[in-house]
Structure formats: structure tokens, C-alpha cells
Sequence to fold (177 residues):
Amino acid sequence: MRSIPDANQLLGNLAHALAHEIFAPGAPPALDEAARRARERLDSLVDQLAAPLKLPELATHFADARERLPVAMAELARVLSDNDLQIEETERQVSATFENALAVRGAVDLVARDRNGRHVIIDLKWTHSGKKRFDELKVGNAVQLATYGAMVAGDAPYRAGYYLLNQRQFATLTEAG
Fold:
């Protein structure tokens, strides 16, 4: 029982899979196209990646996913477009060895570039409240974003932030970072 992910983890996995399919390299899709593709793929991805969402006790979470995930994908497309970002890759596999031989590896949810060619690191999060992520940014504790930024951009300047899927909000610093 402990190995079965909870509803939030299942929804997060589902959202990542949708984003990987919807956000191909290049310009972001139109809002209605992103929502349409999410609705189209949702049920089959649930069968593949998040089957426990079909259990009766998770029925409300599944209903929420059907309603919220297409809108979240459309809003992510809007954020990318409004900020003139070009998608470089989703689920980019990265690894690095930092000082004192600390080896790190992971998958960056979405890597884009701004009009100046700088990397933009976007970490997708499904959560009930974005408070924790906003607090991490405010006090400088967004370690995952900083680590991914260092692995993708090296010493070059980059931007990074969280896209809070459930809230359909993009959380980032107002200046570089």
C-alpha cells in the first residue's frame, strides 16, 4: 500500500506526461489547442500512469483532473506565449557533479529560452496550495530550481520558476534568478 502514490503524486505524474506531449520544441501551442490535446489524451494517460485515480475513493480527484488539467495546460501555453518563450525541451534529463563530489541527476520539466536566448527553467507542481513554493522563492530556498538552472545554463544567466498547475499560476522572482 505504501508504494501506491497518493492522488497528488498521481495527478502530478499525469500533468508531467501531458506537458511532455503537448509542449513540443518551438513556439507554444495555442491555448485552445493545448486544452484540446489535454482532454484528448487524459483518459488514456490515466490508464497508463495513474490507474488508481479510477478507484471509487479517488473519484473526486479524477473529476478534478478532468476539469483542471486541460485548463492548466492552456494557461501554461498562455504564460509561455505572453512571456515570448520558445520551448526547448520537456523532461530534459540532466546530471552533474558539484563540489565535494556531490552527484545529482534529475529531469527538468520544461526548458525554454527567452527572446534574449537565456534559459528559462520551469518546474511543474501539482499542489493544494502554492504557499510553500512562493515562500521558497522569497527566502532563497528554491534549491531544486537553482540546481536545475546550474545544470542547464552553467554559468550563464537564467530564469527559473514554478508553474503551479492546480492554481494555474507561475511563481518566479521578478528579477533574474
